[in-house]
Each structure stands twice: as C-alpha cells, then as structure tokens.
Design brief:
The protein is of the alpha+beta class. The protein has helices spanning 23-32, 57-68, 72-86; strands at 3-9, 15-20, 47-54. Helix content is 43%, strand content 24%. It has a 3-stranded antiparallel β-sheet with strand order 2-1-3, sandwiched between helices. β1 and β2 (15-20) form a beta hairpin.
C-alpha cells in the first residue's frame, strides 16, 4: 500500500497539509463529505497542489509533521520547486 502527504490550497489561499492512502478520496472528503478536516470548514473548496508518495504510513506521518512545522514561505518554495520540476 502507498501513503501520501498532500497540500491543498483553500479558498482563502491558505494551505492545509495532511496524509492519506488515497489522495483523491481524501480531497473529495474535504470538499463534499462530513469526514473532511474541521479546520477547513468555511475555506472550501480546496484544490490539491502538492503530493509526495511514501512506502509506509509512519514515513508519511513524519513528513506531514515536518511540513506542518514550516512557515508558509517554505511551503510555497516546496510547491514551486515541484511545479517547475514537472514542466
């Protein structure tokens, strides 16, 4: 099974970082379901803008905690680097 860390951009331009084994399902839960993060209520819809893949849940959780500790500027740098590498 694969695990992912993801960053979504909220309607108010804030970021939310989370981890999951199914990114599309989780983003849909945030946007349409009752299982979305409570901190996102009032900031919907969200848009997936970044993800990383891991072999284990513990690796993904460690990375999630690391990214959540960062200031916004560092998250923007990570996202921009990811976007540039895909072009």
């Amino acid at each position: 099974m694969k695990f992912f860390v993801y960053i979504v951009k909220c309607r108010d331009n804030s970021f939310y970082t989370g981890s999951t084994s199914n990114i599309q399902k989780r983003v849909n839960e945030h946007n349409f379901g009752k299982l979305g993060a409570k901190s996102l209520r009032g900031k919907l819809p969200v848009q997936l803008i970044y993800s990383e893949e891991f072999k284990t849940r513990s690796q993904a959780l460690r990375r999630e905690i690391e990214i959540k500790s960062w200031r916004r500027e560092k998250k923007v740098e990570l996202i921009d680097t990811h976007i540039r590498s895909r072009v």
